Known about the structure:
single chain; alpha+beta; Metallo-beta-lactamase, Chain A; eight-stranded mixed β-sheet; five-stranded mixed β-sheet; 6 helices; globular
Amino acid sequence: MTSPLSIGRHRLLSVKDGAFRMPRNFLGDGREHPELLSDDGKVWLPIGAFLMPGDEPLLIDAGLAHGFPKPEIMTGGALLDELATLGTHPEDVRHLALSHLHPDHVGWVATKRGGVTFPNAQVYIAQGDWDHFIDAANYGPPPWVRQALCDLAERGRVTMIEGERQIVPGLTALPAPGHTPGHTVFVVHDGRERAMLLGDAIYCPQQLTAVDWSAATDVDPLLARQTREWLWREIDSSGAAAVGPHFPGLQAGRVLGRRWQAVPHA
């Protein structure tokens, strides 16, 4: 968890659920990426989520949770404890916005033994991802999460997103396809101040300025690259802060030409 990022009247808190050990051939051309290496000589990226606190707390992405079958690659499970340190409990969350439906972004939607985690939350999912992962049953959420999402949809607790859409005042969803068909970035805004939450459209800051670095999990690599190019231009021209759930330290920053500069927290 980092200090709050202020966007006008809004606050954004990053919350860590676990860690992803990035394989050498996962990103770009398979080189070592020395700029991302940890002290142990491996690349460890966080698995994170983002909280907008307030009268109706909103959570963006839901981590991995426990039980991923390949713990040597990804581990999770810390999200609820981290939220509790912020004074937010599962029943407090009123909105859950998902960037996409890969396992490390939906893990706490529901657990295998505990069922739905956030009982009072409306869930927001892009129609394109629902079609690809739920209706067509491509690899994505574990079975208990898929079933929970279907049950929530039947109860009117899932809102499908198509195109640009305001989720709540101060948070807008923008389509950013390629990594998945319905991949979504979320923009926190107040007046001219903006922060972009990039999901997996951008795994790490270096990928913003090296847009040819494709991720092994991109469903449509060509479209994903076009989305990265658009995001780079948008962040550069607008001066918006940007952060993704796998950014080292969950640290937001800005693009300055071809350089990335961390944003000081409030």
